[in-house]
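In this supplementary section we document a worked example of the pipeline. Step one takes a protein sequence of length 293 as its only input; no multiple sequence alignment statistics are reported here. Step two produces a three-dimensional model, which step three serialises into structure tokens for compact storage. The input and output of this example are shown verbatim.
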Amino acid sequence: MTRVLVTGAGGMLGRDLRDVLAAQAELKVTAATRAELDITDPGAVRAAVAEHDLVINCAAWTNVDGAEEHEEAATAVNGHGVAHIARACADSGARLIQVSTDYVFDGEADQPYDEDAPTAPVNAYGRGKLVGEQSVTRLLPDAGYIVRTAWLYGANGPNFVATMLRLAQQREHLDVVDDQHGQPTWSHTLATRLVALAEAALTGRAAPRTYHLTCTGRTTWYHLARAVFTLHGLDPDRIRPIGSDRLRRPATRPAYSVLGHSRWTAAGLPAMPDWHATLAAAFASSAPPWKVS
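The serialised model returned by step three reads:
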């Protein structure tokens, strides 16, 4: 039986991934939350990885603005912690799927970033995640899979969709930026595709490479907020567009976070759906994205 370790199993993506993996009878899954496994502890990581065939790392420092003030601490998790996992996988012979981010790019493109586009992060969070990517490439050239995703929302953690609906109860109008472009991605859909990649990796059908995995299409935060209000039966005209220069946030956000999927498609892996359809499916699900734990 194939043995899979999921790190960061208590987070938004980790909990969805744990649920999807539970339906795979041929897999024996170990789900480790942050309290159960500190990936900044190399000894604990070695012990956890031992005797597993595949690790899917969802453990991460996800507070983008907090990383700006505490870059060393954030990079200890998103960069050096990933290196500990990659090194343990190299020692044990396990494969690794590392979840990364669009924030490794500068956001200055005008067409979707392909997997080999030059990286140039504009904030501390992106710099730390890039350190993690480079560790996987260096330590696991034949067994490391990097999956970049973006604009995640889901039932099991703080996210933009949940925030919009919470603020809708507190304010008559919401000002939302309309000059940042990306691909809203439901964490549950992402989890199903990560499991598909895991199966392809274990059977040799997918090469160890960097892949992009987001819903298709593109939008802005403003138009996403309008779609959320509409699906929830609220008046979308309560959302007002503003420019990013109106926000005073510690971390700079990329203006353009649209990712291309050519390598994923070429590998014959199941495509991601359009973001509109996925958002509607999320709202119709038994665990809609505004139920934040």
